[in-house]
Each structure stands twice: as structure tokens, then as C-alpha cells.
Specification:
Oligomer: heterodimer
Shape of chain A: globular
Largest sheet of chain A: 6 strands, mixed
Shape of chain B: globular
Radius of gyration of chain B: 13 Å
Chain lengths: 113, 115
């Protein structure tokens, strides 16, 4: 079945460091791909998305490119801030299953000043 | 916009008791999702509805779990009887529909502790 694999955390960075969180997926169809972020004590919120191959989603300085050839959707940010500390979830939505999102396990990011 | 509303935010109960979690989706959204989050299993989809009709409940762990959506603005997730292993954060989410790229909006969650 469809699945999402994220890099294990936690990821600990200093402010202004470069961030990469790896995400790879397995899907039979042509999924849409998402990154959600969960701040402490809150629900998940959409960070960015891409709906077809080679699309780049971007928001708040974060970017991710839908790579069909490597089945990847890695999240990147050039310069992280303390306020970026959160849990990041990669997810896919298989068109055949509607919008039943399949989530990765989540990666905790901790940024120190 | 009020967002997805969940109640209660925290629930502590004893094993064997009935627990009811409530969700009010965003007005105009016709798809609603219930998730459970634990450290061990991560985020799991329990059940989802479209136009108040359950579409897929294959994620509901046991018959002790049940969910209803009597109208477009209200849904409940009930656990009866509750067990300590049900302790988790339960999220409700809603979206405009079941199109593949529709964003899901999550509520703040209900943290359930079963003693």
C-alpha cells in the first residue's frame, strides 16, 4: 500500500542553519504531496503542497520539490529560526482514496539561538 | 473564521468509562476526518465522512470505537469502554471535499488520558 517515510529525528540546529528533512513515498498512482507542521500544543497546519511531478511548493521560506523519479519530497529552508521549532509531517494523498492523507511519522526540529 | 473546534481539549477518565469527543468542522466543509496521535504509532486516520456519510472506517481500532456525523456541523467519536491504551491526542480535521489536493484543516486536538 501507499506509504511515506521520513528521516528520523530529532533534528537539532542552530539559528540560521540550513535545514533538510528527507521524505520519500510509495504510491501506485499520482499522489499529491504535502508538508504539515505541528507547533507545540496545536493541531497540524498545512505548510506547503505540490500536486504533480516537478512542482515546487513553498511557504514561509520553506520549499519542497515533487521528484517523481526519486519518489521524494524533501523539505528545505535556507536559514532556520527558533520559531521554526516544531514537528514536521510529510504526507501524501492518493487520488484513488480521496483525501485520506497518509502521514509519515513526523520529524521534530529544534532550533536554538 | 473559527476554524475546526474540538471539545473537550483535555479529558481524564478511568478505564471502563465511556468517552465522547466532539468536533465542529469549518462551515462549508463537507469532509470530516478523525485522527489519533501517539508516540508509538504516530498519526493514524481512524475514519472519515463525506456529506455526513462514513466513507472509510477501516482505521477504527476496535468495536469499542464509534463515530457519527448527524449533521454537517457536528461529529462525535465515542469510546466505550475506554482502556489505558486509548490514551492519545485525537484530532478532527475538515476539508472542502475529497479532491486529492484539498487542504485539510485540523482542530487543536483532544488529549485523552485513560487511567
Amino acid at each position: 500500500g501507499d506509504s511515506v517515510t521520513q528521516m528520523e529525528g530529532p533534528v537539532t540546529l542552530s539559528e540560521e542553519a540550513f535545514l533538510t528533512i528527507n521524505c520519500t513515498y510509495t504510491a501506485t498512482g499520482y499522489p499529491s504531496l504535502f508538508w504539515y507542521v505541528q507547533y507545540p500544543g496545536e493541531g497540524l497546519q498545512l505548510l506547503l503542497k505540490a500536486t504533480k511531478a516537478d512542482d515546487k511548493g513553498s511557504n514561509k521560506g520553506f520549499e519542497a520539490t515533487y521528484r517523481k523519479e526519486t519518489t521524494s519530497f524533501h523539505l528545505e529552508k535556507g536559514s532556520v529560526q527558533v520559531s521554526d521549532s516544531a514537528v514536521y509531517f510529510c504526507a501524501l494523498s492518493d487520488g484513488q482514496a480521496g483525501t485520506a492523507l497518509i502521514f509519515g511519522k513526523g520529524t521534530t526540529l529544534s532550533v536554538s539561538s | 473564521d473559527a476554524g475546526v473546534i474540538q471539545s473537550p481539549r483535555h479529558e481524564v477518565t478511568e478505564m471502563g468509562q465511556e468517552v465522547t469527543l466532539r468536533c465542529k468542522p469549518i462551515s462549508g466543509h463537507n469532509s470530516l476526518f478523525w485522527y489519533r496521535q501517539t508516540m508509538m504509532r504516530g498519526l493514524e486516520l481512524l475514519i472519515y465522512f463525506n456529506n455526513n456519510v462514513p466513507i472509510d472506517d477501516s482505521g477504527m481500532p476496535e468495536d469499542r470505537f464509534s463515530a457519527k456525523m448527524p449533521n454537517a456541523s457536528f461529529s462525535t467519536l465515542k469510546i466505550q469502554p475506554s482502556e489505558p491504551r486509548d490514551s492519545a491526542v485525537y484530532f478532527c480535521a475538515s476539508s472542502r471535499g475529497l479532491a486529492t489536493n484539498n487542504e485539510q484543516f485540523f482542530g487543536p486536538g483532544t488529549r485523552l488520558t485513560v487511567l
